[in-house]
UniProtKB/TrEMBL annotation:
One of the record's GO molecular function terms: kinase activity
NCBIfam families hit by this protein: PPK2_rel_1
InterPro entries: P-loop_NTPase (IPR027417), Polyphosphate_phosphotransfera (IPR016898), PPK2-rel_1 (IPR022300), PPK2-related (IPR022488)
Matching SUPFAM superfamilies: P-loop containing nucleoside triphosphate hydrolases
Protein's name in the database: Polyphosphate kinase 2 family protein
Source organism superkingdom: Bacteria
Residue ranges annotated for the Polyphosphate kinase-2-related domain, each copy included: 31-253
UniProt cross-references to Pfam families, sorted A to Z: PPK2 (PF03976)
Gene3D superfamilies documented for this protein: P-loop containing nucleotide triphosphate hydrolases (3.40.50.300)
Organism whose genome encodes this protein: Variovorax ginsengisoli
Transmembrane stretches, start-end: none
Keyword match rRNA-binding: no
Length: 268
């Protein structure tokens, strides 16, 4: 089994060093991989129950990636067996006027996970060190300041019981072209397509550079970044499911001690 450490960003991390088509966590054909994912999804549901029962700590999964990298699909399949009562998903879109009138972390802090809860962010506060950087809306000093503010924010969360897992879904330019073309060619997928996707695609290299700088600056011991090869949808889902299961197991969750008042109680 491959090691997650090999995909963890660090100070000398290079995005080009990760092959988007790699599948080190996959084995067997499609049927075998679906079975693997289902096994992991069932285990994730069990661990979520214990997290909820313990009622002290929280888990935050941050998903970032360019268009078609599979953020929605990841959520759909990785949490396919998890009770919706224990998982909360927030999708971050372009800031509203109300949000722009405040600091860029305001809208994020309002939706951090509660005790005993898994929260998934589909896009996140990292949009504020990607889009503004590529578009030239903030300069290098402002960008560095935001990196520091993000690290402080995430440190606050971890020090108050939140475990953070950040995944960058790394898709190749060729695979993105294929997926965008599918959305164009299939009328029932037109709702997924926007001409803005093509405008962003033209700035591919700039976004790759912005991601690399952001990952390097904000992958910390408190909140590490993992780069997920995402050309294979099966592999993407398996890797993230496996990472979440490992993370929850490493938390050594425990259900509350038995209530002595219930010993010998007979329900009639």
């Amino acid at each position: 089994m491959a090691s997650f450490k090999k995909f963890r960003a660090g100070p000398k991390f290079k995005l080009s060093g990760v092959d988007p088509a790699a599948t080190p966590f996959s084995s067997g054909g499609d049927d075998a991989q679906r079975e693997q994912l289902d096994t992991l999804a069932i285990e994730l549901d069990r661990l979520q129950n214990v997290l909820h029962a313990e009622g002290r700590r929280k888990l935050l999964l941050v998903l970032q990636g360019l268009d078609t990298s599979g953020k929605d699909g990841t959520i759909r399949w990785v949490f396919s067996r998890t009770s919706p009562l224990g998982v909360k998903v927030t999708a971050f879109k372009a800031p509203t006027e109300e949000e722009r009138a405040r600091d860029f972390l305001w809208r994020c802090h309002a939706v951090v996970p509660r005790a005993g809860e898994i929260t998934v962010w589909n896009r996140s506060h990292y949009e504020d060190v990607l889009v503004p950087v590529v578009e030239g809306w903030i300069d290098k000093d402002q960008t560095r300041q935001r990196y520091a503010q993000i690290n402080d924010f995430e440190r606050l969360l971890t020090q108050t019981g939140t475990v953070i897992v950040k995944c960058m879904l790394h898709i190749s330019k060729q695979e993105q072209r294929v997926r965008l073309q599918e959305r164009v060619d299939q009328p029932d997928k037109h709702w997924k397509f926007s001409l803005d996707d093509l405008a962003v695609r033209k700035k591919w290299d700039a976004y790759q550079a912005a991601y690399e700088k952001a990952l390097t600056a904000t992958s910390t011991d408190d909140a590490p970044w993992y780069v997920i090869p995402a050309d294979s949808k099966h592999h993407r889902n398996l890797m993230i499911a496996g990472l979440l299961v490992k993370t929850l197991k490493d938390m050594k969750l425990r259900v509350p001690p038995a209530d002595p008042a219930l010993k010998g109680l007979v329900v009639e």
